[in-house]
Amino acid sequence: MKTTHQIVYGNCLEKLKKLPDESVDLIFADPPYGLAKKKGLGWAYSKHITLQETWDIFSKDEFFKFNIEWINECWRVLKQGGSFWVCGSFHNIYQLGFILQHLDAKINNSIVWFKPNAQPNITCRMFTESTEHLIWAVKNHSKTKWTFNYDDTKNKIFDSLSPKGKQTRNVWSIALTSPKEKWAGVHPTQKPSELLRRVILSSSKPNDLVLDPFVGSGTTSVVAKSLGRNSIGIDNNKKYLEIAKKRLSQELL
Ligand SMILES: C[S@@+](CC[C@H](N)C(=O)[O-])C[C@H]1O[C@@H](n2cnc3c(N)ncnc32)[C@H](O)[C@@H]1O
User: Fold this and answer.
1) In 10 A of CB 125, how many CB atoms?
2) In this structure, are strands 106-114 and 131-138 parallel, antiparallel, or unpaired?
């Protein structure tokens, strides 16, 4: 199936405004987590998991305002019955969930992504942080049915915690991309393709339109293409988008 894939350079707050209301079937967002230490949200003992990327630096108030703005725009462009996925860590996920609940989103699941090869905790003063979280919410105001490809989840999604042929649990064990894999390490917070495969496979149909407002190195676009979905990926970093374009032209999952 021939699909189309747009890579858009710019601030998603502006670029999302150009998309029509209720025009997107699935949104996957991997936003800034607010881990950066320079201003506001720094956490003294988390050096090994903090980022110093400028795009991740916000004051507490700026961060809340930013999250409200981009989620509102995403919600506007999402179709009735469409799926909205957002991932985060304990630094931001509660705030994202609060905003979604305020929008009257129907939250279908929260997924715990277990990373068996997460970094150890070097401070030895707390547990080793080895999970991230995904919220799966749907726009259900008109009671339009959302897509859930139940058979695909049973037969095409499995790991050590969910055997093949059984219902898939909301705990997903997916290793961080090994440095040996092609395209590994091209972005500081690159998501494993398998994570995106599960999201897109389970909650969209072939030929649907998938939007990622923070597409980075293009993981979402590449997976959407491999699954026969169309995609729009936005990012305000040219360097990452060049990588995304290259991956889209070369990568076959
Ligand atoms: C967590 S990373 C996404 C990584 C991506 N999932 C991947 O696998 O490569 C967040 C991305 O958001 C981008 N970004 C931050 N603020 C943005 C904004 N206002 N508009 C568009 N992109 C933004 C950053 O450049 C960064 O690439």
Assistant:
1) 7
2) antiparallel
Q: Residues 108-147: pLDDT tens digits?
A: 999 999 999 998 888 889 999 999 999 999 998 888 999 9
How are beta strands 131-138 and 78-88 bridged, if at all?
antiparallel
Residue 53: C-alpha distances to residues 3, 56, 96, 237 (Å): 33, 5, 20, 11
Mutate which of 55, 177, 183, 234 for ligand 1? The one with the most ligand atoms within 8 Å of its CB, which is 55
Q: How far is the C-alpha of 31 from the C-alpha of 93, rounded, in Å?
A: 10
Can you tell me the distance from the alpha carbon of 62 to that of 60, in angstroms, rounded to the nearest whole number?
Answer: 6
Nearest CA to ligand 1 atom 26: 216
Phi-psi region of 247 (alpha: psi -120 to 50; beta: other; left: phi over 0): alpha
**Distance between CA atoms of residues 168 and 201, nearest Å:** 13
Asked if residue 75 has its Cβ within 6 Å of ligand 1, the reply is no
Q: Which CATH architecture has domain 29-207?
A: 3-Layer(aba) Sandwich (3.40)
- In the predicted structure, residue 72 carries a pLDDT above the cut 90: yes
Whether the CB of 198 sits within 6 Å of ligand 1 = no
Q: How many residues does the chain have?
A: 253
